[in-house]
Amino acid sequence: MVHSRNELVRVESALTLGCCAVGNTDVMTEISDSLDFNYIHILRLLYSKDSLVRLLAGGALAAFSYNNLGQQQEIEESGGVRHHCFVPFLESSDEFYRSNAAFQVVVLSRIIPDEDQASSSAEGIKLLVDLLHQSKNDLILALTADCLARICHTRAGIPAAVISVGGIDLLCNLMLVENEQVSGAAAIALGYLSFNFMAERIPP
Predict the structure, then answer these.
(1) Average pLDDT over residues 22-28
(2) pLDDT given for residue 204 in this prediction
(3) Closest by CA position to 81, among listed 49, 118, 98, 106
(4) Beta carbons of 20 and 27 less than 8 angstroms apart
């Protein structure tokens, strides 16, 4: 992550570390104790000339931040993230970019200083639900349903927002498709949403 001359190797390494640390305090402690580790290395990749590197850098930061206020604070103290870094992806014609960026702005919304937290979250949630409605690509539908599942147990208010923009009906419809990856991801998202008292009462 630190010493490779290849940006893609650096960002993939950062993303891998972030995913390994999710929900695992021992791994996160070991990473943090490394003298070479610093979020500045990942934050710099947000400004790469390579769009994929920038997208994956956002993914790495989102992984480290996921349900971890301590790491969010460290990222903020290292320089933080700016909303304008995500705008090209949020407005991209590439659905893969849009889906990933939407997830990232929801997870990182607390530490995006140039955009209100509620606005960032609402923007990301609406984009994900819109993709469920608009996309014809099974891989994108599965990815988007997975992103919704993950954000639905990050903090209070997210499930209610997904419900308010029609996410339940769209996820229920995906349960009927032949692609098992899509229907499985939709089922997981609905499972998390079912913990919300409003969602559990919505008929399929």
Answers:
(1) 93
(2) 54
(3) 106
(4) yes
